[in-house]
Fold this protein.
Amino acid sequence: MRSRFLMLAGLLALGLFGAAAQAAEEVNLYSARKEELIKPLLERFTKETGIEVNLVTGKADALLQRLQSEGRNTPADLLLTTDAGRLHRAREAGVLQPITSTVLENAIPASYRDPDGYWYGLSLRARPIMYVKGKVDPAELSTYEALADPKWKGRICIRSSSNIYNQSLVASMIASNGVKTTESWARDFVANFAQPPRGGDRDQISAAAAGRCDIAIANTYYLAMMLNGSDATQREAAEKVGVFWPNQADRGTHVNVSGAGVTAASRNKANAIKLLEFMSKAESQRWYAETNHEYPVLEGVAWSDTLEDWGQFMADAVNMGRLGELNAEALMLMDRAGWK
Amino acid sequence: MNPNPVASPQPVTRPRRLALPDAWGVGVVATALLLSLPVLVVFSFIFYPAGDVWRHLAETVLADYVVNSLLLMVGVAIGTLTMGISTAWLTSMCEFPGRRFFEWALLLPMAVPAYIIAYTYTGMLGFEGPIQDALREAFGWGYGDYWFPEIRSLGGAIAMLSLVLYPYVYLLARAGFLEQSVCVLEVSRTLGLGPWASFFRVALPLARPAIITGLSLALMETLADYGTVQYFGVSTFTTGIFRTWFGLGDSAAAAQLSALLMGFVFLLIVLERWSRRRARFHHTSNRYLQLPRHRLSGTRLALALLACLLPLLLGFVVPAGQLAVWAWQTAGTMVDADFIALTWNSLMLASLAALIAVGLALLMGYGKRLRPTPLMVASVRVAAMGYAVPGTVIAVGVMLPFAWTDNAIDAWMRAQFGISTGLILSGTLVALLFAYTVRFLAVSIQTVEAGLGKIRPTMDDAARSLGMPPRQVLRKIHMPIMRGTLLTAILLVFVDVLKELPATLILRPFNFNTLAVRTFELASDERLADASTAALAIVVAGIVPVIILSRSISRSRPGHEHAA
């Protein structure tokens, strides 16, 4: 019994010191980006500047909840998410602060950052239409809206409406076409599904390659990862599909950003801004493009070969914050349309 | 004298003349309150209006959540009972080659987290997987030309969960069968009941409390599961809670959904208690002999072997084998210094949480034994509710009061002394361990209560009349008698914490990862092969305690040969 109490007391003490230890040169990061996809960059930052980076990774919603409940005493200086909707939600919740930085403003185009500087996009991912070569002639494809046509019945694979990327896609359609039009589109679109939504983006691509459906909607970096991964089956599957950029004649293909904002309670604000600026530098942007096959937000950074193969495209210019505003609306609409 | 878990309905109590120290009562109620805090915090959201969202849910998806959750529970109940009881009966009452091996091997699926078994089977059996691919190649089929069971479906989810949860039923049913005095069984046989009839009419009813305990653990775990149902695209209460909370940004409606889910669980518990009303289950006698096992041969032997092999193969050998193959391909890149740290973190957290949970379970179980007032009974029940609540919900329920307290202390210190204390406990391991305790207390309480219930109250009376204070009775008499039970409880919690993901993800401190976190990060990026090394490490770390557990159960029966 006694030893157990001692152990607890020791833990308590550890906890105390762990929380209270605030070294001079550090920056604390809550990241929805997985450790593997951020840590190498952070290590490089520490090497260059001598500033230590402490990291907690997790799901964006949970990190946001944690940030909110910790309030003004939160140790976090920076919140990093993999979609704009959550960044917008963080701003709405009052846990971010606006910052100004000429470096960031020069590097990042206006539609990929918050108009008031609450958050900044750092990399782009597109959600185009992927089609099975030989089964679908790209000339048949035009827009997301056109996928509601009955000719696609039983030919479309897409994941669940619980997924944030689909929520953002539908939000972008609401922003462009309004709720009513989008809802009737969603009903027809869902009627064309080859199977009830299940699994992730890679699963949709694999299903299409295996003949389950002719069209999959997925994020670009998943396809690029499959093409460049070590798994032969996935590579073969990915080679069977082509990328089609929808809506090039109107608003452009739906894109989303991963980005970050400085917390309202930040105690290492200067270091947090340094880290943000570091991530927008050409060298870091190239790392994103090479390692995770994301599109850099910075003009003039070389793309990976895979991205080059798919060619240039026009991206939907709706401000990312708008997608966050419409997120709940989009999810309810998908519920009504029977999108599982 | 036998320390193993069998649910006890109510300890036998007699009016005692001894005045009991109130410290126990206060201690139990206070602990229960503290541990119910997260659940109560989540419940407190009920009073927020969430009218529009509820109307929306009711019109669209709510029926789905209810129906799927119910079907999932019924399916898992059937699956775990069938596999758990049949294997428990065979290994404890029959003699066949390999019996001793199966005794412990049947527990192995426990070490495999449900979401991991779901990933591996999908990789193998999915439409894009090697098996269906080979079929299509061989016969020149395309999609729609042939029928193949769809793994990512409600049926698939039932199968996955049943395979990893049946050990709960097996473990407790087996203890329940071993418990039974051979006399009862002999009497039933002399009265002309055949082996089947004596099983259904004598053994099964006697083991019922134990089986129900195992089943309720399995069902609570099923209700709280998120990883599997989400991956399979089955909309249940749990996935609904997440969508509502995060997708719709409505924490009130999400909390109300959670409350509905808990109501469900509560109803189950009440129903079961009511159905057992006045039944008493005590030792049927003190005579233990070497159990006369039925020797099996011929068709029966083949069937028995099949019944034991299938759950073991499907629940452990196949998924672990698949993981091993993947790990073999990727281990070179995945095992590094970090990996050692991850493993250490996982083991440390799991051990600490297990000790805390079992310590508290002892306190509460014994307190309830001393004074079985309705308040005490209710306290223990409420404290054990956390097991049926999804980890994320518990985590948020832990986060809010911790942060609130920290911030209140900080504000007060600033006002009084101009010192900022910052966050004292939020974001530390203390918060994380607290969450584990809340989540897994049910497992330890059920086990400990069962063990205590089997110790005759006359023992306490004798010790007390010799002048021992209650604390000493617990330490010097009960704990030694219950060694096996306590070990079982510790190991169950240990394995559960090892597998735990959602609460760990949300509450952990900076730069702190566990094996489960690593597995999830890679798997959710759809990199199953890379995730396999960490997943395999969880399984291996879980196997060791499972084997120890099994040995302790085998030894628990007087007259049972010491072997495992």
Notes: The beta strands of chain B are 94-95, 294-295. Chain B touches chain A through 78 residues (CB under 8 Å). The two ends of chain B are 20 Å apart (CA to CA).
